[in-house]
Amino acid sequence: ASHELKTPLTSIKAYMQLLERADLKQVERNLVTKANSNINKLNNLIGDLLDVTKLQSGQLRLNIAPFELKKMIMESVENVQHMYNSHELKIVGEIPDLTIEGDILRLEQAMNNLLLNAIKYSPGTASVYINVKLLQHEVRIAVTDKGIGISKENQERIFGRFYRAKELSPVISGLGMGLFISQEIINRHHGKLGVESEPGKGSTFYILLPLSSSGHKS
Ligand code: ADP
Fold first, then answer.
1. Is the pLDDT of residue 168 over 80?
2. CA-based, 20 to 30 A from 60: which of 27, 39, 45, 181?
3. Stretch 31-54: mean pLDDT, rounded?
4. Choice from 55, 168, 179, 201 to test ligand 1 binding pocket (greatest atom count within 8 A of CB)
């Protein structure tokens, strides 16, 4: 199914790239930009759906290898900042120089998800904060927004598959897969994905990753 879903989209993308090179009027160029942005959304949704399927059937494989934590975080921050300029992504303090073991691409996916959510659920605010702290046995990567926040009741539910806090589902688009996938990825690294939040004040989502490399499942 993965191939069947992805192939037509890849070919649409290629056609759009050809179209971009054509001599287009501004109006047409705007339409191409809009089409591209929707193609990307669809691409991400398909990716998420396939990940959920893989997770459910125990087929999500991790490629565990040593990597530089700082590099992973900076790449994620830069990518998301490049996509959205509504908020400034601010690194608080220093990111410790640290090599850890894990699947860099999957961890970056989880980090991207937290950053995108922080932006998405804090309309009308200016900044999102990234704070990385070295603890005794683990590293804590926190993403803080000053947005709508989450009630105590919902804080327990939002990690569930397809769960979305009801108040805002109609206003802010999403399918409720991101946190489920992110939590599974972090769990598979023997880490923890947690949240601290107050409605109306904002949220901090944090990833705890163990420093020791022992006991990884791949
Ligand atoms: P989606 O954003 O597609 O709904 P997620 O799984 O990423 O899916 O998030 C699940 C739900 O958790 C969201 O629908 C929202 O209600 C809540 N949520 C996630 N991140 C935040 C945040 N930073 N601030 C407020 N609510 C959030």
1. no
2. 39
3. 90
4. 179
